[in-house]
Amino acid sequence: MLKITGYPDRYSARAGEQIDFKVSLEEGETFQARLVRVVHGDCNPDGPGLKFDHVPSNADGHHPGAPQRIDAGSYLVAPAVPALAAPFTFYAMVWPTLVRRDDQTIIAQWDPVAQAGWHIGLAAGGFVSVTLGGAQGPATARAPKPMLERHWYALCVAVDPVAGTVRIAQRPITPYALTDDDFDVDFDLVPTAPAEPVSGVSIAGCAMADGSVDRHFDGKIDRPIVLAGLHAPTTHDRLLNPPADPTLAAQTIAHWDFSRQVETRQAVDIGPYGRHGQLENLPTRAMKGWNWDGSCHDWRQKPEHYGAIHFHSDDVYDANWRTSVTLLLPDDLPSGAYALHVSCGDSDVDATREHYISFFVVPPRNAPKGSRPRLAFLAPTCSYIAYANHAEHITARGVEMLMNRMVHFGHADLYMYDHPELGGSLYDTHADGSGVAFSSRLRPVLNFSARYHSWLGGHGSALYQYNADTQLFDWLAEKGFAYDVITDEDLHADGLGAIENYDVILTGTHPEYHSTAMWDAMKAWIDRGGRLMYMGGNGWYWRVAFSEHWPGAMELRRAEDGIRPWIAEPGEYFHAFGGEYGGLWRRIGRAPNVMAGVGFIAQGFDFSSYFRRAPDADNPRAAFIFDGVDDDIIGDFGLVGGGAAGIELDCITPELGSPPHILRLASSEGHSAMMMLVNEEFGPVPPNLGGDQNDRVRADMVFWETLAGGAVFATSSIAWCGSLSHNGYDNNVSQITENVLRRFLDPEPFPVVEVTP
Amino acid sequence: MVYRIDAETDRTYIEEFRVAPIAPHSPGLQRVLNIMRLWRGGDQFILIAREEFADYVIGRMPPDRAQPIVIETDLSFSTREEAEWELFRRRWRQHTGEDINQPFRDEVS
Q1: CA-CA distance, A669 to A692, in Å (whole number)?
Q2: What is the DSSP letter of A303?
Q3: CB of A58 within 8 A of CB of A327?
Q4: pLDDT value at B92 more than 60
Q5: Chain B nearest C-alpha distance from A400 (Å)
């Protein structure tokens, strides 16, 4: 089990700036901290071993610590709503998604200490409940018939707090034969306690006596309305359909229209008082509402069909932990990968008592060209955030079959299992089965850390994403290449300006997620003569989005196609952040091949194979790549699955944008039946999906020149970097990589090649 | 109905797995493993690294995350391969009713 963890307030910082680290200490009262440069985070005894360089800083030493917890669950608070001591009626359209959970909140005005106020919720089984807090304690009315999961209901609850009476009316939008879920029932409860009335209301969550917010709702709520007075269920229709009824408008206490200001944290009250709500923990907006009829799939075009917010009891945006260490980055700190190493004792078989809290130091702003290295590593922080706390080994089944071996759990995974409130990755599903469409870095991310061994990584070192990228950091250090680090978020924020002064960019092993701003900047950089070394596989695959209203969070809609661990609902393919159409870049008309010359073709996690030299390796244009490499077989060794070709592979596909003059230098072979074609590559399912029977299942190592004198080299394999250190860094994978990098750093333009029709 | 592991037909794959628990596997062994690894709603066996590359135990993850993972601390392994073999032996018995009385390595007594 993990006894210490934490997160930084940012992933990207500059020398001279400060970073706040939020640490949770599970045992003891103090912990030790030190700043380290991360060189190699893989403790595989068959490799170079762990390498961290201590950097003296103000963080060195002991710090007080204590456990810190995450209050997960999204909700809305509208503090301006007054205490409702007179009769009122609540209307909403409700779509519950986890009816087995008890004690959910639809809307409440509740004092948890005094047990006063009123609470409209959902009890286990899907029964609407209404609780009134009286002088003799709370009394609850329970609906006689349940709601069906994932069905829309018109809900009307009329409350007379003085008389202590409640009317609950529920009407299914889609009634079924033999399903009895329509009713209108009156209850006598207790008068609400008159003293100390609470004000403000909360939706989808309720304040607890300990200061947290709990009793969350799982599901969608559309158009919650509160009217003064007791009204009939039929009034609901008049409220929802224009033109507005002035007699009802005069009685409006609040009327929230969730289809407005979708990108923001605000829930707009269109009633006369403007009692706007504030959303917490990033519920999902741009969700189709009760009246969506399929006539429009873009929420911006028909917002009246997108009036729902999907709340989840396990949504997390910002863990909001107290700052434990404020690190002042030394003024002369070079750009690179760093971590705050925190520890609270020696680790043993039962507990890990250290954690590397990762971040990157990026170069100073506006550094003139020539003052910085000409090489940059583009840290794929979008992909790290997408995979943050990737827990399919916990939340999904079938992983053992996919890995073709037992599912690996380290201490961090055991901690993750016990702490679902950490929040999932964009690969996980919420407790109610809906996909996690937002991932935030403002929380502990256990797999964005040196030493983390992934259940998803190849057999051997078992590295994936960040820790796999440290194998490249190690190789760069070993070979003595100077470089800067630019993160994805920097590229998103600053565009081409973030990278235009670099001649060569190295990617990470799996740069899968990119925003439009990032895509445009990278393409512009390549078109202007940049030299790209694509050091992995399955890059430029998914489109993601950021929002200034929720900094640190990233959105993904798993639309239409691709390797989708969950599938977005029809009609919900457009981002709430910015309104772009989400999903695969390929489906948006920008296949990875347009950027890198190759695109995703296959994945398999059982073992990694090797490349065989292809005829284009003998093309004079590629001579520099194979200088000193005469081998026919390349990379039949490595720490990630035992070879350089594995995990996820890319290949040339001219129809998708691979340039006509691209050189196929080598292709992988020898993959098993478990290395399978990705599903966007076929229509009818072919029987020969596996690499043992399908010759499209291969990685193509490629090179091509661009019109501006630049070039692109792609390894097309996530496992490539796991082979760099083999035999003391003296091997053909290392030699090819070094040959390419040295030539790419040579300012001599690459010749423009005539394309023969 | 999916394939049912048959002791007579599939016994030949026991030795293949013992020698090389990590892929690549023959198609016949792969079918046996896929059937063994089908999740049928019960516990999911997992490999817990108490110390990476040195000390492993088998765990059982229940279907309901609210329940704790059961960790078999009384039986530890120094390699993943040893744990894979132990699990294979259990599953072979579960599917065929037969015990495999072979050690992971010939030299192990």
Answers
A1: 9
A2: G
A3: yes
A4: yes
A5: 7
- Residue in A672, A667, A563 with CA at minimum distance from that of residue A607: A672
Neighbour-count burial of A378, counting CB atoms closer than 10 A to its CB (0-12 exposed, 13-18 middle, 19+ buried): buried
Domain membership of residue A87 as a residue range: 75-311
Answer whether residue A167 is part of any domain.
yes
Distances (CA, A) of B12 to A401, A717, B90: 21, 34, 17
- What residues contact residue A180 under an 8 Å CB cut-off, 6+ apart? A145
Nearest-angstrom CA–CA distance, A544 and A382: 8
Q: Does position A238 have pLDDT exceeding 50, yes or no?
A: yes
Amino acid present at A288: K
Chain B closest-CA separation from residue A409 CA (Å): 5
Measured at the CA of A471, the angle between CA A598 and CA A369, to 5 degrees, comes to 75
How confident is residue A107, by pLDDT bands cut at 50, 70 and 90? very high
Any domain includes A669: no
Q: In a 10 Å sphere around its CB, with 0-12 CB exposed, 13-18 middle and 19+ buried, how is residue B109 labelled?
A: exposed
Among residues A43, A69, A166, A751, which one has the least CA distance to residue A444? A69
Average pLDDT over residues A170-176: 97
Q: Which segments of A395-529 are extended strands (E)?
A: 407-409, 438-440, 484-487, 504-506, 513-515
- Restricting to B residues 71-100, those with a Cβ less than 8 Å away from any Cβ of A are 80, 83-84, 87
Tokens encoding A243:
């033109």
Nearest chain A residue to B43 by CA distance is A397
**pLDDT for residue B108 is more than 70:** no
The answer as to whether A268 is a domain residue is yes
Interchain contact, A405 vs B23, CB within 8 Å? yes
Of B21, B47, B65, the CB nearest to A417: B65
As a whole number of angstroms, the distance between CA A185 and CA A145 comes to 10
| CB-closest option in A395, A420, A459 to B22 | A459
Q: Which of B47, B67, B85 is the best residue to mutate to test the A interface, defined by the most A CB atoms within 10 Å of its own CB?
A: B47
Q: Are A311 and A113 in contact (CB under 8 A)?
A: no
In a domain, A648, yes or no: no
**Each residue of A438-491: pLDDT tens digit?**
999 999 999 999 999 999 988 999 999 999 999 999 999 999 999 999 999 999
Chain A hits for B38, CB-CB cut-off 8 Å, are 401
Instruction: Work out the minimum CA distance from B12 to partner chain A, whole angstroms.
Output: 19
Whether the CB-CB separation of A345 and A353 falls below 8 Å is answered with yes
Instruction: Inspect the interface and report whether the beta carbons of B39 and A405 lie closer than 8 Å.
Output: no
Whole-model pTM? 0.96
Of B38, B55, B83, the CB nearest to A406: B83
A406 chain-B contacts, CB cut-off 8 A: 45-47, 58, 80, 83-84, 87
Among the partner-chain residues B22, B47, B55, the one whose CB lies closest to the CB of A607 is B22
For residue A462 the two structure tokens come to: 């078992």
Look at chain A and report how many structural domains it folds into. Answer: 1
A54: exposed, middle or buried (C-beta count within 10 Å: 0-12, 13-18, 19+)? exposed
Which of B24, B30, B49 is opposite residue A410, by nearest beta carbon? B49
Euclidean distance between CA atoms A78 and A254, whole angstroms = 9
Partners of A269 in the β-ladder? A256
- Find the radius of gyration of the CA atoms of chain A: 28
Strands (E), A401-490: 407-409, 438-440, 484-487
Q: What CATH number does the domain containing A285 carry?
A: 2.60.120.200
For B17, nearest residue in chain A (alpha carbons) = A405
Contacting residues of A for B58, CB less than 8 Å apart: 406
Residues of A whose CB is below 8 A from B83: 406
- Helix H segments across B1-79? 7-10, 12-19, 27-36
Subunit contact B61:A417, Cβ cutoff 8 A: yes
